[in-house]
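Case study 2.
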Amino acid sequence: MSSQDDAPKVRCSLRIEFSSDEEASRIHRAVELDNQGYVSSGVEGNAVLALIEASSLNSLLHTLDDLLACTTLSEKIVAKKR
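Prediction:
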């Protein structure tokens, strides 16, 4: 198997903006551990930036769905702690 076979075939970059830098950092910390190996992510100001690379569109969609579900839940929890 060549290294080209292992290369991601589909890629998605995502920017999710929040009301503050602190909220973005908290949400990023909450979902970061779950994403290791599937999503490269970071915080830029009040936004969480994510890059998803996968070998198929189906795999990318599953990862994206999971990321968005975890982010939504984290956002609700962070909002209640204010």
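Residues 19 and 46 are 7 Å apart (CA to CA).
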